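Sample entry (376 residues):
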Amino acid sequence: MAYGNEKPKCSKLMDVGGAMKEKPQILIVDDLVLNSRILSEILKNEGFDISIASGGEDALQFLNIHPCDLVLMDIQMPDMDGLEVCRIMKNQAHTQSVPVIFLTALSETNEVLQGFEAGGVDYVLKPFNLPELKARVRTQVNLRLAMKKITETNRDLEQLIYTVSHDLKAPLHSIMGYSQYISKDLLENKPQDRIQNDAVRIYEIAAKATAFVGDLLNLSRASLKDVQVSQFPMQLLVEDVLKDLMPSLEKAQGTTIFSGEWGLVSTDKDRIREIWQNLIQNALKYRSPDRNLELIFQAAQRDQEYTFSLTDNGIGIAGENLPRLFTLFEKVDEKSEGSGVGLAIVKKILTRLGGTVEVTSPGEDQGSTFSFTLPV
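Predicted structure, serialized as tokens:
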């Protein structure tokens, strides 16, 4: 039997539930409101974020504004049938990759072929077999999320190839140039100090290129290395990292303060060490020349989550630059000698560990705070 025959009083979009942003987004398109509401309750319980459109026009309007991972759509609708909506979706760049599952009655099975020809990826017969419905929806959503991940990875790979080519080409050209100078000076018996200066310059350029390659290797390890969970005291780990960086801290005349609830955590110790190394080195790199460096480390535990933060009194960050900081190869200060990889590594590691990271800053020359969370 069908789930209901109640008609909507008006043609409007209805957001169902307050699901979290990271949940897969599904749009249900059906002119029978009762059908849509029952479907939405079923799928909400499966962990999806559901929105409802009461017709084809509403569905297209919704999709023009909101991203979506799957559309469940009735074929027979009064204003515009599902086949036409699907054809329009497949001719629009922003919706052509969104999968469509058609909802159809047994008497409409002759329309299934038309649904595939219109661009649909699957269909579900009414009355619904719930295990089958859930399985078909989950399969298409997983495929969609996998394709989005592949697209994102390909985009990162293209950026990686471009950046590596650009950032290594310049130092290689410089090394070649200085090598030619040295060869010429040796043939012409030029002063040794001039030759030595060129050799030192070659070493400096090679050292920067080596550091850049090291950052790329760290980025690769952040993606590929298996997570090794152990229990350890977080504050002792931070203090150990500070000891490793003591020469730089002393040069900056830095002081450190610990506050909050520091205790034992269970996660990948080596990965967390790398996070703290990147955050502290970032604070050292962008310290203010007008004052001694101050680092404040804070910790807290709420419900099922740890929160750790590092606040510095450095040069701060302009508000418009905050969203760019964790993007691979992004450098807010183009004059910086950094590779733009360190904070991207922090984000990638925390994503693998089930955590999050964010940065806040009151503004330029007012310091900044980097905070990250980890599951308990």
